[in-house]
Amino acid sequence: MSQKETCVSLGDTVPLPQGKANTNLIQKCKLCSRDGTVTMISGRGKPLTQEESEAGKYAPLMLFECRGYEPVDYLFGDGWKVESLEGTKFEGVDLSGGDLPSMMRRESAR
After folding, report:
1. What percent of the chain has pLDDT over 90?
2. Is the pLDDT of residue 96 over 90?
3. Which DSSP string corresponds to 2-58?
4. Residue 82 region, left (φ>0) first, then alpha (ψ -120 to 50), else beta?
5. From the centroid of its chain, how far is CA 79?
6. CA angle 98, 25, 23 (to 5 degrees)
7. Which of 2, 13, 37, 38 could make an S-S bridge to 23, C-beta 3.0–4.6 Å?
8. Tens of pLDDT, residues 73-92
C-alpha cells in the first residue's frame, strides 16, 4: 500500500494500454509491477440531500470500477456543486478541509 495520496477526477482520463477504452487512473504496483486501474462510472451516483445527511442514510455519490487496485480511503477535494436549503447555488466548492467554506456558512446563517 502506498502512503502517497493519489487523485482521481472524472474529467481526467487516460487510454488503457490494451483496447480502445479509457480509465481515470492507471498505477503500477511497486511489488508485482502490474497495472491497476480505477474508472469512475458517471451517472451512477446521486446528490446528497439534507434529509439523507441528517438521517445518516446511505447516499452513493460515485461508482468506481477498480481492477487490480483497491482504494482504502478517500478525501473530498474541490470542484463540488452545492445548493443551499434556500436555493443558492455554489460551484467549485472545496470540501478538502472537511467543512463547508465560510461563504456557505454565512448563507445558512441568514
Report:
1. 19
2. no
3. --S-----TT--EE-SSSS-EESEEEE-TTT--EEEEEEETTS--PPPHHHHHHT--
4. beta
5. 10
6. 120
7. 37
8. 877 778 888 888 788 898 88
